[in-house]
TrEMBL record:
PANTHER family: ACETYLTRANSFERASE, UDP-N-ACETYLBACILLOSAMINE N-ACETYLTRANSFERASE. SUPFAM superfamilies: Trimeric LpxA-like enzymes (SSF51161). It holds the Pfam family Hexapep. Belongs to the transferase hexapeptide repeat family. GO terms for molecular function: acyltransferase activity. The keyword Transferase applies. This is UDP-3-O-[3-hydroxymyristoyl] glucosamine N-acyltransferase. The keyword Acyltransferase applies. Keywords: Acyltransferase, Transferase.
Amino acid sequence: MQKLDQFFEAGSILRNAEFATLGYADARPLGTLAFSDGIKYVRQACQNPAISCIITTQELASFTEGIAGVAICKDPREAFYKLHERWVAEKRYQLPITPHRGVNCRIHPSAIVADGCWIGDHVVIGENVVIRQQARIGSHVIMEPGARIAMEGILYHRTPDGPRMIPHGGYVEIEDHAVLMSGSTVVRSIHDTDVTRVGHASIIGLNSVVGHEAKVGDHVVVSNQCVLARRCVIGKGAFIGTGSFVREHVKIGEHAQVMAGSIVITNVADHASVSGNFTTEHQPRMLHFAKKLRDARTPSDGLNA
């Protein structure tokens, strides 16, 4: 366990307390240090018993009753990510991964597989696949040529000198029987308090990206060239059509369908079917589109003669 006064000046500490790791206001592991630069996340942290310490502003500090440790600064996000960068550099994050190679795996000689990752039985790893050590790969997983697992994603913090990339310190879990097609990328989580996960028997299509802390449920099909942004959740049995984008934090319900080329910025209910930019219910959209086509017809089409 660490204490706030090991990392912050005494004058900036409202209440000193211990913490074990870093994470966001909704983190689950006990003893998490979070940050908040808005009242929404202060309230979320206060309602979360896992949060033992928080970095926030002077104005928001009065709303932190119930949180054991409070550090105050002008830019909580900047302070948090500087500490996070130190955590990554010093390898303080504790990942639940031990080195392991299962039986009857087929690994192409051109693949780059880190020594520290965990790989189950009967895994197929194709040409030029890259698996970094912050990955746990289940059994009977197929990774086709060029798939990339546990990569860094685009997370940055704006500074006076321009955007600064923030390193990732978490990990990835690929469940049994998943298929990652050529060029697909799965980004590892930011902290050890969360994970990026691809569920049992799910398929990630050609050149698709699973962002950090995204959760792809079991039996999901993500078609080609899709982007699942950070912390989105794709429910069991859902279908994501080719070229679709799912915004961060959005939840796609179980067995829902997102049609090709969709931009999803709001939650989708179980068994719903949506399409478009931005998405709405698919069937009414198609009926409206068909009506527009009918209305646009002219006698020269030979249809109204």
